[in-house]
């Protein structure tokens, strides 16, 4: 899929070097089709890395996509320059009158805080409320999924005794939903979380369906009955070395992390990890774009 992103966005060169089809605004304008407008609320601290990871997964489709990058207005991470934020990001007060075909709300390193104590919680609630009528389908990742489940359905998160980090195997519980079309019966995905959602809280809610589950990491994909919201407790967008970087960061902070499960060969951090979740990430995002955005969104928003 051609992704229409600014020429100067750092992710552009990385993706071009990987062979991803990047389109500039001039060429996109000449094509007589309407692109899908996808807005990404990026809550991750290292925003440039997350931009690249998500744009990579959005690239595996014949559809043309126009990306808008969104950030909280009153909070700026220390690991991303203000110049980058001002050049490539917008804030909610500039987009709340617009309509979008799809939205992604990322994870955030705030999961050990009560939701109401997160600096941008009030603004996030406004965005999640707005998404119900102004976005065709919203994909929520990790803490973003927990926050949305709490806001929309009153489902809380719970602390784990220790961080759940590694590559975990998930079993698909039903193949009747389009989101898991083409999935194998089992798949792998990275997990990096200090908290979890109780399975019974989801099964007791008639508006939600669990599509996959892991014996070790718990609930996988969750879909709302109206198919408007998708919740991913894990990180299909992670690069090969993201968990390694997190592990080394936590060691430097003397947080005494356990080595990520099922990640390093022989559990030796000096060994190169093996990429076992790439195909799942591409297929998941492709299914979302096709069946939950493109096939449903109106050609003209009214």
TrEMBL record:
Keywords tagged on the record: Acyltransferase, Amino-acid biosynthesis, Cytoplasm, Methionine biosynthesis, Transferase
Top-level taxon in the UniProt lineage: Bacteria
Pfam families, per the entry: HTS
Site (Important for acyl-CoA specificity): 111
Active site: 142, 235, 237
Enzyme Commission number: 2.3.1.31
Keyword Amino-acid biosynthesis: yes
GO molecular function: homoserine O-succinyltransferase activity
This protein's pathway: Amino-acid biosynthesis; L-methionine biosynthesis via de novo pathway; O-acetyl-L-homoserine from L-homoserine: step 1/1
Amino acids binding substrate: 163, 192, 249
Location in or out of the cell: Cytoplasm
Site feature (Important for substrate specificity) residues: 192
Presence of keyword Thylakoid: no
Recorded catalytic activity of this chain's protein: L-homoserine + acetyl-CoA = O-acetyl-L-homoserine + CoA
Predominant localisation class: cytoplasm
Family statement drawn from the similarity comment of this UniProt entry: Belongs to the MetA family.
PANTHER family for the chain: HOMOSERINE O-SUCCINYLTRANSFERASE (PTHR20919)
Function according to Swiss-Prot or TrEMBL: Transfers an acetyl group from acetyl-CoA to L-homoserine, forming acetyl-L-homoserine.
Name of the protein in question: Homoserine O-acetyltransferase
Species name: Bacillus carboniphilus
Gene from which this protein is expressed: metA
């Amino acid at each position: 899929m051609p992704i229409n992103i600014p020429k100067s966005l750092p992710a552009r060169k990385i993706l071009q070097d990987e062979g991803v089809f990047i389109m500039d605004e001039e060429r996109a304008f000449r094509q007589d089709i309407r692109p899908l407008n996808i807005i990404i609320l990026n809550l991750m601290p290292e925003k440039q890395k997350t931009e690249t990871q998500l744009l990579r997964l959005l690239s595996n489709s014949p559809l043309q996509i126009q990306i808008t990058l969104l950030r909280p207005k009153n909070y700026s991470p220390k690991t991303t320059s203000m110049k980058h934020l001002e050049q490539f990001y917008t804030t909610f007060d500039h987009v709340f009158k617009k309509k979008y075909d799809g939205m992604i709300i990322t994870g955030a390193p705030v999961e050990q805080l009560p939701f109401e104590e997160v600096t941008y919680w009030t603004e996030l609630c406004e965005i999640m409320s707005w998404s119900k009528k102004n976005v065709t389908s919203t994909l929520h990742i990790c803490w973003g999924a927990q926050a949305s489940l709490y806001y929309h359905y009153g489902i809380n998160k719970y602390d784990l005794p220790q961080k759940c980090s590694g590559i975990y195997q998930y079993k698909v519980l039903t193949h009747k939903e389009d989101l898991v079309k083409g999935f194998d019966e089992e798949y792998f995905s990275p997990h990096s979380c200090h908290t979890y959602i109780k399975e019974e809280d989801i099964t007791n809610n008639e508006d939600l369906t669990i599509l996959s589950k892991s014996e070790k990491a718990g609930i996988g994909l969750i879909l709302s009955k109206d198919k408007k919201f998708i919740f991913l407790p894990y990180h299909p967008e992670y690069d090969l070395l993201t968990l390694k970087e997190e592990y080394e960061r936590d060691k430097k902070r003397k947080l005494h992390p356990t080595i990520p499960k099922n990640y390093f060969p022989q559990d030796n951090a000096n060994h190169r990890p093996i990429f076992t979740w790439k195909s799942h990430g591409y297929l998941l995002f492709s299914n979302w774009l096709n069946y939950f955005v493109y096939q449903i969104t109106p050609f003209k928003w009214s």
